Amino acid sequence: MTHARRAVLQALVAARAHVTAEDLLNIVQIDSPEIHLSTVYRTLDALENLGVVDHVHLGHGRAVYHLTDNAHQHIVCEKCSAVEEVPSKLFLQLEKELMDNYQFKVRMNHFAVIGTCRKCLAKLEESRDS
Amino acid sequence: MTHARRAVLQALVAARAHVTAEDLLNIVQIDSPEIHLSTVYRTLDALENLGVVDHVHLGHGRAVYHLTDNAHQHIVCEKCSAVEEVPSKLFLQLEKELMDNYQFKVRMNHFAVIGTCRKCLAKLEESRDS
DNA sequence: ATCTTTGCAAACTTTTTGCACCAAT
DNA sequence: ATTGGTGCAAAAAGTTTGCAAAGAT
């Protein structure tokens, strides 16, 4: 357990949400500006191997990291990029079906579910009306 | 409609499966070696805007492209990278729940569902026994 | 003393872009 | 003739790696 690792882990706990590697870098650099982005990646990698941390792809580009205990999924609007969390239990039936029919054990939360959010759907409605 | 676009579209139809931009490049270059990777990307982009093509992220790195009409999802094993297609109807209930509870219109197939496939699960069982 | 981790710079992978030239209507 | 598409090379964006120096046990 080194200084850098402690700092990254603390930042991750403090963030209490999905953060990118760069977000974490910005947080840890407030107190420890010498810490490098590659150290953040290596620490996250180590923490993932320990099963403490997971990363999720919310969309194109950057991945976000979070502590493993959060039992939720992410739904991401492809129009406005809004991210919402939804409880994992909505996915239970799908997980069961994939297990029963394909003997496939889903790790559902690795990718976000993308689509169109409430607000953007409403906007689309509006513009169709006019 | 130019030569390059025709070639890319033909390659995509011929492939009849998920292919990466580079796969497509390799196919079109058999007959038209002057076609460039950036043209493939630009053509795919144009075709996506027309709604003819979709791309899916199967895992880290490259995306795969396919014609829009294929109504299936991809499940990808994170251990062995095997890709399997599953019918969209397994996802209907989830789509309905997200719509009813969150007014969120899923575009389910943009990301693959990742997890562990039958074979790799079996291997894990074995190694646990020994 | 040994083995691991760090900082740094540089590589890497996939995709996008600027630009001058060429092709399609 | 004009608008848009193409080839190329180079940039971007996100992540990974090689290495020598520094740190942990």
What does this structure look like?
The structure is a homodimer of 130-residue chains. Chain A has helices spanning 3-15, 21-31, 37-49, 92-102, 118-129; strands spanning 19-20, 53-57, 63-67, 72-77, 83-87, 105-106, 113-116. By secondary structure, chain A is α+β, with helices and mostly antiparallel strands. In chain A, the strands form 2 sheets. The first copy, chain A, has a 3-stranded antiparallel beta sheet. The first copy, chain A, has a 3-stranded mixed beta sheet with strand order 5-4-7. In chain A, helix 2 (21-31) crosses helix 3 (37-49). The longest helix of chain A is centred in the N-terminal third of the chain and has 13 residues, at 3-15. Chain A is flat and about 55 Å long. Chain A binds chain B through residues 57, 75, 77-78, 84, 86, 90-91, 93-94, 97-98, 101-108, 110-118, 121, and chain B through 57, 75, 77-78, 84, 86, 90-91, 93-94, 97-98, 101-108, 110-118, 121. Strand 7 (113-116) of chain A pairs antiparallel with strand 6 (105-106) of chain B. Chain A binds a DNA duplex (25 and 25 nucleotides) through residues 1-5, 20-22, 34-39, 41-43, 45-46, 60-63.
